[in-house]
Amino acid sequence: MGQIEQGLERALRTRPVPSSTEARLRFLLAAHRGSTRRVAAVLGVSQRTVQRWVTKKPGARRPPGPMQVRAIEEAVLTRWQPRIGARRRAQAEANGFVFHTRARFGFAAPAGSSDDPRVRWITQDLPGEVARELFAARDAGAGEQQQTVILARALGHAYFREGGGRAHGLHVAFSDVEFADFSIG
């Protein structure tokens, strides 16, 4: 998962996701009303395996392996605050969002121009159309590269072209994203 994808996921949550594997297993058990059978079905393991992971008996507890830890994380992320995520997504698509990033950003210009691509801190309001396009690309399984292209086009329009008022025809460069955060609402 790239920086943009992680930023979108963080923006859709209001509370942090449980960080430890034990806390994630407790969340999954609570979400499935304590049924180790249902949690096992979700994770693709046996019921007995889930029971070994969550037992409180000394010496009987077995930690999940790396593949199971990833499956647990994915299961928690898909079930963490679904209504809040949907509400925040709708809000971003309707009203837009603020995009905060540190990345290499600029456009192809003659040497020495102040708009050469370089690492910049950028905080920019972007409209709801960009949010709709980003979420649609993410839902379609687009990778980090396609999301970067969407953001480059939107940032170029808002930042360099000042909403379409100048600098038509510039090719915007947006790469080397160090972090990407989205503020909704």
Topology:
Elements: H1 3-11, H2 21-31, H3 36-43, H4 47-54, H5 66-79, H6 82-95, E1 97-107, E2 118-126, H7 128-139, H8 144-160, E3 172-183
Antiparallel strand pairs: 1-2, 1-3
Helix pairs in contact: 2-5, 3-4, 6-7, 7-8
First and last CA, distance = 24 Å
**Major β-sheet annotation:** 3 strands, antiparallel
- Give a count of the beta strands, DSSP E runs of length 2 or more: 3
- Please mark out the parts with pLDDT under 50 across 5 or more consecutive residues, or reply none: none
Count of discrete alpha- or pi-helical segments spanning 4 or more residues: 8
Backbone shape:
elongated
Give helix % range. 40-55%
The helix/strand order is HHHHHHEEHHE
Largest beta sheet: what is the strand line-up?
A: 2-1-3
Q: How big is the Rg?
A: 21 Å
Class based on secondary structure composition and strand pairing? alpha+beta
- The oligomerization state is single chain
Description:
It is a single chain. This protein has 185 residues and is of the alpha+beta class. Helices cover 50% and strands 17% of the residues. The chain is built from eight helices and three strands; from the N terminus they run H-H-H-H-H-H-E-E-H-H-E. The protein has a three-stranded antiparallel β-sheet. The longest helix is centred in the last third of the chain and has 17 residues, at 144-160. The radius of gyration is 21 Å and the shape is elongated. The two termini are 24 Å apart. The relative contact order is 0.17.
